[in-house]
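Lab channel / #folding
Pinned by the channel admin:
"Please post every new chain as: sequence first, then the structure tokens as a reply. Keep commentary short and put observations after the output so the thread stays searchable."

First post following the new format, from NK:
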Amino acid sequence: MLQLYQGAVRSRLLLGSARYPSPAVLAQAVRAARAEIVTVSLRRESGGERSGQAFWSLIRELGVRVLPNTAGCHSVKEAVTTAHMAREVFGTPWIKLEVIGEDDTLQPDVFGLTEAARILGAEGYEVFPYTTEDLVVAEKLLAAGCRVLMPWGAPIGSGRGLNNLLGLRTLRAHFPGVPLIIDAGLGLPSHAAQALELGFDAVLVNTAVAQAADPVKMAAAFAQAVEAGRAACEAGPIESRDFASPSTPVPGTALLR
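Reply from TO:
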């Protein structure tokens, strides 16, 4: 089980809900992924509009936990205000906090992110911050009250996988007891498996599933990859070597003369 604040889930695959061909395909993908947490953008699905109510009804029918996000927010005020609205609409203290600092890479504004996290944490929110792999930023987010961190693998929607393996490994080693969820940039199930093999607790995927030729099949593939990666991590992988190491020991082998 993965403990996230006061909630516990079995699935280590979180699924985003944007950019699917249709609500029906989204529902099928969530089921195929066996996801228990789905992220929702308040900007996309307004609680006061009919389309928003229909979407909210679909999410409730799926029986998943909703993780609202502040996608597209570029300032502390904008992110905090969006979080307030999300709690009213979705009735959850959870919030995936995004404060974007750069438009081309959608890199988080880590200064604004930390300030917004401190404000929302003091108001009782359980904050899931979209951040970088920077250790100093991680320390400040934890000091602000965050109990989960969501470092990016690569820029949102890029499909590049894990860009900074050294930084991510260092982050995982530095915070062994903190749930770490790779968020953004994963393009293939193998990227998700690699993240779990490195010891990360879960991954969040949206574009790689929603924009695939067959989103439902891709969702199932990611689910299998996450399970394989977690099992491999728990099994204890061997360390890589620079030279060959024979799998059959030399002593005791037959000598032909």
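NK: The longest strand covers residues 126-131.
TO: also worth noting, The two ends are 58 Å apart (CA to CA).
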